[in-house]
């Protein structure tokens, strides 16, 4: 009896493994809604198709916009997989019942703090919020111990931010969770009183810091390294991590989930699994300077180890509360 059970288990495993072998995957296709750019995602999707034979059609756009589209399309959505640049949008879709639970074997590749508590999405790469600073005008000794301290008058006219950027808004959401709405509103008004320069995105902020237009900016960590790769180590800007578990050190994730309306659940799940493969994780580490989230894949040597960053106690599952954040930003006159 024991032998027959073992044989049955082996047969099932073989059948499951063979469902989407490259030869049998011919004709199978997936539709991916990607809030990450074509330049970043397309090479990974091409590798997936080459490895599995599963064709991928990708629709690119803003993370929040594509999440809203899936919600509006409802049962008619053609999306199989949703790829987002932050946990907030993934949380919003999960809360609305638009994502399917992922297998434990996939979820367990990533630390619990970087995945959905309900198993509905998983982080595929990490991005730290940092302060980028001009090294000709400042040293780390000149920078405060908390992002809260940038409201002091000494920073007037020296700060750059991008209030419409999704990553910034996710950070403000984290502030609301830790500080409450009133303290967050006071911080926003304090920064506003310091006459910050407003930029369209993180790239523009890093460029402005390097050019000396501003001394500091609130950005994701990896944008600096794109400038260092293109312009060399003489580029006069570096990242600053706060010494304590400050909300300024928030670690957010890019992540993925299988949409409940997918007609190709096995193939969609396989794509999410592929995004957590060693090859894909090394791609994120070496090409985009993001943090790999799978144990055993090293971050780029220029980055401080993920475990050394003093992160705040924020549950990424709660970053979906964007509407309230937008309301606070509007009330403060930031948007």
Estimate percent helicity: 40-55%
The best one-word shape is: globular
The total of helices stands at 12
Q: How far is the first residue's CA from the last residue's CA? A: 68 Å
Low-confidence stretches: 1-24
Notes on the protein architecture:
The protein has 335 residues and is of the alpha/beta class. It has two domains: 27-125 and 252-309, Periplasmic binding protein-like II (D-Maltodextrin-Binding Protein, domain 2, 3-Layer(aba) Sandwich); 127-250 and 320-331, Periplasmic binding protein-like II (D-Maltodextrin-Binding Protein, domain 2). The protein is 40% helix and 16% strand. The chain has twelve helices and ten strands. The chain has helices spanning 2-18, 38-52, 63-73, 87-95, 104-107, 166-179, 181-193, 202-211, 222-231, 265-275, 278-287, 322-331, and strands spanning 29-34, 55-60, 81-84, 99-100, 122-134, 159-161, 197-198, 216-220, 237-240, 251-259.
Short key terms for the protein model shown above:
335 residues, alpha/beta, D-Maltodextrin-Binding Protein, domain 2, ten-stranded mixed sheet, 12 helices, disordered N terminus
In terms of topology, how is this protein built?
Layout (H helix, E strand, L loop, with lengths): L1 H17 L10 E6 L3 H15 L2 E6 L2 H11 L7 E4 L2 H9 L3 E2 L3 H4 L14 E13 L24 E3 L4 H14 L1 H13 L3 E2 L3 H10 L4 E5 L1 H10 L5 E4 L10 E9 L5 H11 L2 H10 L34 H10 L4
Parallel strand pairs: 1-2, 1-3, 6-7, 6-8
Antiparallel strand pairs: 3-10, 4-10, 5-8, 5-9, 5-10
Helix pairs in contact: 3-4, 6-7, 6-12, 7-12
